[in-house]
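Below is how a single chain appears once it has passed through the pipeline. First comes the sequence as given, then the structure the pipeline wrote out for it. We keep one example in the README because the format questions we get most often are answered faster by looking than by reading.
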Amino acid sequence: MENQVFQKTPFARLLIGAVLGLGTSIAPLVLLGFGLATFKIIGLVGVENATAVYGMVGGVTGIFLVISAPLGGLIADKTKVKMGRRRFWMVAGSIGGALSMLTFTYATTIPVLIIGYCLANFFYGMVSLSCYAVVPEQVDPAKFGRVSGLFGAAAPIFVIIGSIVLGIFADVPVQQKLIAIAMIQIIGGILAALLIKDTQFTGNVEKKKGFSEGFKNFYPSVKKYPEYTWALLTKLCINVTNAGLSMLALFYIMRFHLAEADIMRVMAYQAPAIMLMVVSGIFGGFLSDKIKKQKIFVMGAALITGICMIAFAFSNSVTFVVIGTFFFNFGFGMYGAVDNALVNRILPSKEDTGKDIAIMNTTTQLSSAVVQFIAPGLIGLGAKLLGDDGYTFFFIVLAGFSILSALMVIPIPEVGQSKNEKVAEKAELVSE
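Resulting structure:
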C-alpha cells in the first residue's frame, strides 16, 4: 500500500506560486512561436526557405504534443517522490526545458532544432500542467472561477512583459535572448515549487495501481463520466474557432488588399485586445464563483465569439474587423476562465488530474492542426459557392463551431449537480 501525507498550501501562497510557474513556463513558448524561432530558422535555412521550414517545424511539434502531452500527464500522476509529484515536475520540467532550449539555441541542423523545440514544449508543458493540477487537488471548488481567471491572465501578462524586455534588448543576439529566457524560467519554476506544498509519498506502491494500470484506463470512461467528454468537445470546438484567427493576415490581404506594413499596423491596433481578454477572464471567473453558475458564462461567451465570426464574414471595413477582434477577445477570455473552472469541477479523479487535464489541453494543438488542414479547402469552396474571396464562408463555418461549443455545454451538470462533486463532498465529511 502507498503511504501519503496530504498537504494543502495556503490559498494566497498557492496562487502566487502557481501563477509564477504558469506564466514563466508558457511565455517562453509563446515568444518562440511569435518571432524568436523564426529568426533562428532564418539563420539556418535563409529567408527564402524559412516559411516552409517553419510550417514543418510547427506541424511536427503539434503532432508530437498531441501524443506526448497526455502521456506526460499520466507520467506526472504516477510519479511518487517525497517532495510531491507536482513540485517535482515544476523543477524537473524547468531543468528539462532549459536543456531543450539550449539544444534549440545551438542547433546547426533542422532535425536537431525540431528535437529541441519538441522537448522544450513538452518539459515546459509539464511545468504548466503541474501548476494547473494543484487547483483541483488543493483549492476549494467555490474558488475555481477566480483562480482560473487569474491563471488566464498570467500567460498574457508574462508574454507582454517578455515582449517589452525583448524589445528593449532588441540588438542582443537571438542565442543570448533564448538563454536568458531559459534561465528566468528556471528561477520561476523553482520558486513555484518552493512556495507550493504538495502531497508527499512516503511508502511503497502497489504494482496493480502503477503506470500500466493508469495507461489501461487512459481516457476516462464515457459511460461513467460523460460530462468529461462533453467538456472536451466544447473546448475543441471553441479552439477551432480561435485557431481560425491565424488566417487574419491573409484575410486582410485578400479582402482589403493591405500591404505588409499596413497589416503590421493593424496588428498593433489589435494588440491591446489581449488585455481585454485578461480583464474579462478575471471578471467572469469571480462572478461565476459569486453566483455559483458556470454554464451561462461559458455558453454566452461561446456565442459572442460566434457573432464576431459572422461579423468578420460580412465585414467591409478594417476598422470593423479590429473592433470585432476586441469583442472576440472579451468572449474568449471569459470562456477560457470559466470553462477551466468547469473542467476542474468535473474531473473524474484527483489521482489522475494531470493526465485528464493534459488530454483536455491537447484540444489546442489538435484544433490548430484541423484548421491548418481544412482552411484552404473551405476558403476555396467558399470562393466557388459565393464568388467572393472565400472568407465569408470560412468565417461562417467558424461561427458554426462556436455555436456547437455552446450547445455541447448543455449536458454538463451545473455547479453542485455533478456526481463527482457529491462524491467529493461525502469524502470530505468522512475525513472530518
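The CA atoms of residues 416 and 425 lie 10 Å apart.

See the next section for the split statistics.
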